[in-house]
Design goal:
single chain; 340 residues; alpha/beta; Nucleotidyltransferase, domain 5; five-stranded mixed beta sheet; 21% strand; binds 5'-O-[(R)-(carboxyoxy)(hydroxy)phosphoryl]adenosine; binds zinc ion
């Protein structure tokens, strides 16, 4: 089976070609530079950029895969959640292509695609579900922070989520307070590598509460108050690194502790992590170490498939289609605010 997948839920325009579990191409056009000027994603600009970039990106994905539209057996696209008009741009283009080819249109839930992305290998890029097992899975990105119990393939339920800001949002907003450009997550990661995570003590929200929820708005506010009292601190390069390392440690400590605790409580032997924040070096290191200590297997999405990409959409669409799930009617409504 050969399909083209499209992802336009936020600020990456992406198209991928997937054939029988193998990723033949995965083209991502990032709009980061455009939104950086405004300190965050501007929905209207994102939509315009998707409309501008979608066709060139899709053509490149087909060219790199050496696949023509005549060879496609299906078309897949993210149907939500995400920015409504950004989603519409990709979804309607995909529907039009599927309609013109008289092929099935497969609508994919964005969080579900992140959820299964740790089972994508990189060399060569392909899905490997042979090792698939029940898990407690952390999905962390700019728009969502979810802890999910995966009972078996396509049977999962959300254990907890953030009550306010997502983990990535917290990275981006605290970074902005320190004068870093959007998105600040990768820059905090880089600067924190040479910083002292114990230099400043920021709160670990909800760490000890007996639930699987998160809350990061208070941490951001605490960094804000601290910097209002000490405005010159980020001007010193080493102090900035220490601030980054300390804020990062607060976020990562909570994510790791609550994920491992849930896995132990529920008797799961495997923990996975995915989404843009799963690129974070401290999170990867600390989660792997905590899992090892607890006797759990740890499976992290590869960095390439952690941030938004169409390959994860295509892999899940194909897998669900093969399992007899997945087609949506060409006139189906998108539901931008869907929960997992
Ligand atoms: O999954 P993603 O590409 O988009 C959403 O679905 O939101 O995640 C983007 C988020 C941003 O908040 C970005 O700052 C964060 O992931 N991020 C990181 C790192 N790389 C990306 N956060 C911390 N450390 C990183 N290395
Ligand atoms: Zn995402």
């Amino acid at each position: 089976m050969t399909l083209v997948a499209i992802e336009t839920s936020c600020d990456e325009t992406s198209a991928a070609v997937v054939r029988d579990g193998c990723i033949l191409s995965n083209v991502i056009s990032s709009q980061t530079a455009i939104h950086a000027e405004y300190g965050g994603v501007v929905p209207e600009l994102a939509t315009r950029e998707h409309l501008r970039n979608l066709m060139p990106v899709a053509r490149q994905a087909l060219r790199e895969a050496h696949v023509t539209v005549a060879e496609l057996d299906a078309v897949a696209a993210t149907r939500g959640p995400g920015l409504p008009n950004a989603l519409l741009a990709g979804l309607k283009a995909a529907e039009a292509l599927a309609f013109s080819l008289r092929k099935p249109m497969l609508g994919v839930h964005h969080h579900e695609a992140h959820l299964y992305s740790p089972w994508i290998l990189t060399d060569p890029p392909r899905a490997d579900f042979t090792q698939f097992e029940a898990s407690v899975s952390l999905i962390v990105s700019g728009g969502h922070t979810l802890l999910v119990l995966v009972e078996e393939m396509f049977r999962h339920r959300v254990l907890g989520s953030t009550l306010d800001d997502a983990a990535g949002e917290c990275f981006d907003k605290t970074g902005k307070l320190m004068g870093l450009a959007y998105p600040a997550g990768p820059e905090i990661d880089r600067l924190a590598a040479a910083g002292n995570p114990k230099a400043y003590s920021f709160p670990r929200p909800m760490l000890n509460e007996a639930n699987d929820d998160f809350s990061f708005a208070g941490l951001k506010t605490s960094v804000r108050y601290f910097l209002e009292k000490n405005p010159a601190l980020p001007d010193d390069p080493q102090t900035l690194r220490d601030l980054c390392a300390s804020a990062q440690a607060a976020i990562v400590d909570v994510l790791v502790a609550k994920t491992v605790r849930a896995a132990r409580r529920l008797g799961r032997r495997c923990v996975t992590a995915s989404g843009g924040v799963a690129c974070n070096s401290a999170l990867r290191r600390q989660l792997a170490a905590a899992c090892q200590e607890a006797g759990l297997r740890c499976r992290l999405s590869d960095r390439k498939f952690s941030t938004d990409n169409a390959a994860m959409i295509g892999i899940l669409a194909e897998r669900k289609w093969m399992a007899g799930l997945g087609e949506i009617a060409v006139d189906a409504e998108i539901e931008p605010s869907w929960a997992l």
